[in-house]
UniProtKB/TrEMBL annotation:
One GO MF term attached to the UniProt entry: DNA binding
Protein name per the record: Type I restriction modification DNA specificity domain-containing protein
Source organism: Acetobacter orleanensis
Domain of life (superkingdom): Bacteria
Any Gene Ontology biological process: DNA restriction-modification system
Amino acid sequence: MELVLQNANGSTFQEISKKNFRPLPIIKASLDLLKAFNTQSQGVFDKIIASEAESRTLAQLRDLLLPKLMSGEISIRDAEKMVEDVT
């Protein structure tokens, strides 16, 4: 990262040109290291996917229930029951 910053320039924010970026050395991880990373990180990625799905479900519930609660069409108890049925 230090080497990248040394080659960056710009007055508003630092940037690096393709010309300066291309000659920078990179380290390529071995296949064994990539497999180990995948094994260790898969649970995190699975949790992210599950959390995104849960977030979408909760947003849909909010969009469905909030107008009904505010209009008095349903009670808090009714809304809680609907949420329990979904989750």
